[in-house]
Amino acid sequence: MLEVVYFTSVVLCVLGSDAPCLNDGGTCRYDHLPCPGGYVSGLCSGASNRRCCQSSGSDAPCLNTGGTCQYDHLSCPGGYVSGLCSGASNRRCCQGDDSACLDEGGTCQDDSLSCSGEYVSGLCSGASNRRCCIEDSACRARDGTCQDDSLSCPGEYLSGLCSGASNRRCCIGADSGMFSNVKVYSRATWGARDPTSVSAISTPVDLFFIHHTTGSRCYDFSTCAAKVRNTQNYHMNTKGWSDIGYSFLVGEDGAVYEGRGWNNVGAHTSGYNSQSFAAAVMGNFMTTKPNTAALNAVKNLIQCGVNLGHITSTYRLYGHRDVSTSSCPGDALYNEIKTWPDYSTAAP
Fold first, then answer.
1. Residue 3: what pLDDT?
2. Residue 106: which domain range?
């Protein structure tokens, strides 16, 4: 008997692997179905609408910060943070761009949380209730800085604009650019020593003197601040004065550095300290005058003093040499200030 054996050909259909999705704790499904944590493409086999549904709970730490969990080879505007997303180690939390809030000195947070200043919309990434908390916003709106009012303020203090204790007030002028378009660095900013004593000056004054410090010139904050500190040490340690002598110092970075400021008698122009302020431009200006940035800073500083009521509107401007045998403020700088409209040829 002849036995005929039939072989049946079996064709197996092998789907692509869903392992990438499963490894992330997700489930592959068609994306018309609801998904609590959102769909991620490229992790599932099959049709393009068969995608990986992520679990919502595991990504909550990222979502709560206004971020989105995604693979870190993808572009992310605000940078990636690890440890906030479920799944593989390269699935990280992409933070939105909060730079607009950060630039205002604020913090992006859920607006149900307490904010000592005020919330501003439109500056934070994420949900609409994730807003920018800008503390001390009333003071910031005046270009001021909130600080303890026992600290020196080159401008003036205003109450009611800062959060916290009653002695935390808004200093208008400290590092704010409020001095008629000139930046003023406070004593705290450049690293001043405390004075051994102070004497209040009666204002407004009618005289303003220009000096130079001699020595090297400076063109950036770091170099200028170091020069101011060295000047203070020289005045206090070698000359035995209670503080740096000048009311203000000016660098060729275009900034003003607070010395004794608007409130205290200086030690800059013998015989006139109690009735004048003085600014010293840092450097030696016998042969060349300071750059335009420094000259404009001096002019704007004086105008600020007038605006704040510390200097009379009819003030008279002098060089140090006008009342001494010194060559200060240097030939080139002296010739420059003699062209300014408020320079006086009459004796003080």
1. 52
2. 99-135
